[in-house]
Amino acid sequence: MSKPVDEMNEPRISAEALTQIDAIIEKYPTKPSALMPCLWVIMDELGYVPAGGVAVLVEKLGVSTARVYEVLSFYTMYRTEPQAEHTLQVCHNISCHVMGARTVIAQLEKRLGVRMGENTPDGKFRIEGAECLGACGHGPCLQLGKHLYENLDTGKTDNLLESLRKGDVPRADTDRQLED
Ligand code: FES
Fold first, then answer.
1. I need a surface site. Which of 15, 49, 95, 119 has the fewest CB within 10 A?
2. Reported confidence tier of residue 159, pLDDT bands at 50, 70, 90
């Protein structure tokens, strides 16, 4: 039997999110096939999927804990730990690499004082490598949530960091989705 989420000293999944999960499950032919959209409900609410969230899905979908972690660990967009305020995902595939991704990554590491895959001590920033972001003709590029910043160089990278430090998310070159 899974523990209630609040006994695990983790953020609580709201009643609204649980209702949303139930509604999603109803739409699928089998409960296990609703796993990915249900993970998104938790991701959207908490920013990651804590152990308590996994336990909720195990119970609601009738799948094993191993199955939930299998999906969570396969797809890089899912998270199992609290995230930095801004996760900068820099494309390091071939087109962006040729166009200077390494320079952008080096600039981010220099300015933030952390390496790829690390969070800054204040929890504000994290730098990650990403596979092709689908903007190969506009590289190097990075993704910040739904925002895609393209044709990066050291100056544009510095401006982006400066804006984020001030609490402004600068206008992106491309937004992945237009409605929230
Ligand atoms: S290689 Fe970077 S967006 Fe495709």
1. 15
2. very high
